[in-house]
C-alpha cells in the first residue's frame, strides 16, 4: 500500500498512456468476472495493450483512489493541446547531437541570492560549452538529487544541448527567458500532517516512543481510554505484542491502533512547536 501517496501510481500510469498513445492491458486479469454485465455499457477490460490514437476530442483518463481508510478520490486527466514549435536553430559553436527522446530536459539551479543563482547558471553554461556531448539526463539527475536546494531557484529547459545552453545563457544574462522558470521559496512555508491509511503499520510500531517520550505515552493512554468502551482489547497490549500475533491481522484492530499512533505522533510534533497548517488522511 502506498499510504499517503495512494493513487499516484494510477496518475503516473495515465500520464504515460497519454504520452505514448497506448492503453495498457489490465494486469492480473485473464477473464472478466461473470458477475458484471459487460455488454450493458462501454467499459471493458483490456487483455492486450491497445493503440490510443488522437481523435477530434481530447483524450481523457480517470483515476480512482479508494483509500482503505475510507478516503475516496477521483481525478480526470486530459491531454494537453498540441502546440507547434519552430525548429530550433543549432548553436554554431556546438556540434550536432541527436535530440533526446524525452520531450524536454530540466536542469535545476539554485543559489543563496539572485546573483549566486545567475553565477551558477554561468558556470553550467561554461561546462556545457566545453563539453557539448555531456549526458544531459545524467547531469539533470545529479543537479536535482545531489545539490542543495537553496532559496533562489530556477529551471533551465531544453530539448537538446543547444536548447539547455540557450536557457542557461538567458538565465545568466537577464534571469529569465522562454526556457527558464525561476522563483524564490516562500519564507512562510508551513507543515502539513498526513495520517496514512492501513498498510503503513509494522509490528513494534510506537513501542520505543511509548516508553521514551512522555508526550507520546500520555497521548497513547488517552487514546486507549477513548477506545476502551468500543473494543475488547488493550491498545498497549497490542502495541507490545510479538510478530505473528493474530490481532495484527485484524482490520478492526490495526486501524484504531494506527489512528492512536498518528494522533500521538502529532502530539509529539506539537510539543516541539510544530503546528500543522492542515491535516489530511
UniProtKB/TrEMBL annotation:
Domain Ketosynthase family 3 (KS3): 1-79
Segments crossing the lipid bilayer: none
Record-linked InterPro entries: Ac_transferase_dom_sf, Acyl_transferase_dom, Acyl_Trfase/lysoPLipase, Ketoacyl_synth_C, PKS_assoc, PKS_Beta-ketoAc_synthase_dom, PKS_NRPS_Biosynth_Enz, Thiolase-like
An annotated Gene Ontology molecular function: fatty acid synthase activity
Pfam families registered for this protein in UniProt: Acyl_transf_1, KAsynt_C_assoc, Ketoacyl-synt_C
The keyword Transit peptide is annotated on this UniProt entry: no
Protein name: Polyketide synthase
GO biological process, one term: fatty acid biosynthetic process
This protein's record includes keyword Transcription: no
Organism: Streptomyces sp. ID05-A0143
Keywords from the named record: Multifunctional enzyme, Transferase
Amino acid at each position: 500500500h502506498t499510504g499517503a501517496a495512494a493513487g499516484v501510481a494510477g496518475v503516473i500510469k495515465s500520464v504515460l498512456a497519454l504520452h505514448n498513445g497506448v492503453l495498457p492491458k489490465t494486469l492480473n486479469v485473464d477473464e472478466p468476472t461473470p458477475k458484471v454485465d459487460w455488454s450493458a455499457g462501454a467499459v471493458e477490460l483490456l487483455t492486450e495493450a491497445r493503440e490510443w490514437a488522437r481523435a477530434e476530442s481530447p483524450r481523457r483518463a480517470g483515476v480512482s483512489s479508494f483509500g482503505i481508510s475510507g478516503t475516496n478520490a477521483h481525478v480526470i486527466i486530459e491531454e494537453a493541446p498540441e502546440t507547434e514549435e519552430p525548429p530550433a536553430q543549432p548553436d554554431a559553436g556546438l556540434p550536432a547531437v541527436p535530440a533526446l527522446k524525452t520531450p524536454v530536459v530540466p536542469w535545476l539551479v539554485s543559489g543563496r541570492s539572485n546573483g549566486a543563482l545567475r553565477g551558477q547558471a554561468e558556470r553550467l553554461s561554461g561546462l556545457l560549452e566545453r563539453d557539448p556531448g555531456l549526458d544531459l539526463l545524467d547531469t539533470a539527475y545529479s543537479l536535482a538529487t545531489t545539490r542543495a536546494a537553496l532559496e533562489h531557484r530556477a529551471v533551465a529547459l531544453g530539448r537538446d544541448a543547444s536548447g539547455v545552453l540557450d536557457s542557461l545563457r538567458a538565465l545568466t544574462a537577464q534571469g529569465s527567458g522562454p526556457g527558464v522558470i525561476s522563483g524564490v521559496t516562500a519564507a512562510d512555508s508551513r507543515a502539513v500532517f498526513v495520517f496514512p491509511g492501513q498498510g503503513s503499520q509494522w509490528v513494534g510500531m510506537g513501542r520505543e516512543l511509548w516508553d521514551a517520550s512522555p508526550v507520546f505515552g500520555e497521548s497513547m493512554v488517552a487514546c486507549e481510554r477513548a477506545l476502551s468502551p468500543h473494543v475488547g482489547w488493550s491498545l498497549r497490549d497490542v502495541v507490545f505484542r510479538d510478530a505473528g500475533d493474530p490481532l495484527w491481522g485484524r482490520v478492526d484492530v490495526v486501524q484504531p491502533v494506527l489512528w492512536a499512533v498518528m494522533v500521538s505522533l502529532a502530539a509529539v510534533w506539537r510539543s516541539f512547536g510544530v503546528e500543522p497548517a492542515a491535516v489530511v488522511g
